[in-house]
């Protein structure tokens, strides 16, 4: 008997841009943030991920 399904917790955050329902997820906060960075570059090139924005993203991260 083997357990294939990973039971590891993951972290996720919904994009902080109004009207965008993109969700970024990863195993750690760092992974989530790098996903957010990639998403922002692709979907919101005008948005700058400064300290304040990253702080807002971090505050929204939830463990699922
Ligand atoms: Zn977005």
Number of domains: 1
Straight-line distance between termini: 26 Å
User: Which cofactors or ions or other ligands sit in this model?
Assistant: zinc ion
Helix/strand-derived class? alpha+beta
What is the β-strand count?
Answer: 3
Topology pattern, helix = H, strand = E: EEHHE
User: What does the overall shape look like?
Assistant: globular
InterPro entries: DUF1059
Organism: Halodesulfurarchaeum formicicum
Pfam families: DUF1059
Protein name: DUF1059 domain-containing protein
Task: Report what the structure shows.
This protein is α+β, with helices and mostly antiparallel strands and 64 residues long. It has one domain. It is built from two helices and three strands; from the N terminus they run ββααβ. The protein has a three-stranded antiparallel sheet with strand order 2-1-3. It is globular. The chain starts with 10 loop residues before the first strand and ends with a strand. The model has no long low-confidence stretch (mean pLDDT 91). Zinc ion is lined by residues 15, 17, 20, 22, 39, 43-44.
Give a short overview.
This is DUF1059 domain-containing protein. With 64 residues, this protein is of the alpha+beta class. It has helices at residues 29-43, 51-60; strands at 11-14, 23-26, 62-63.
Question: What's the arrangement of secondary structure elements?
Answer:
Elements: E1 11-14, E2 23-26, H1 29-43, H2 51-60, E3 62-63
The structure holds zinc ion.
Q: Which descriptors apply to this entry?
A:
64 residues, alpha+beta, 3-stranded antiparallel sheet, 2 helices, 3 strands, binds zinc ion, DUF1059
């Amino acid at each position: 008997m083997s357990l294939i399904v990973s039971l590891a917790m993951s972290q996720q955050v919904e994009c902080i841009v109004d009207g965008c329902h993109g969700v970024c997820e990863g195993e750690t906060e760092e992974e989530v943030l790098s996903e957010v960075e990639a998403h922002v570059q692709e979907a919101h090139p005008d948005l700058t991920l400064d300290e304040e924005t990253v702080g807002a993203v971090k505050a929204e991260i939830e463990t699922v």
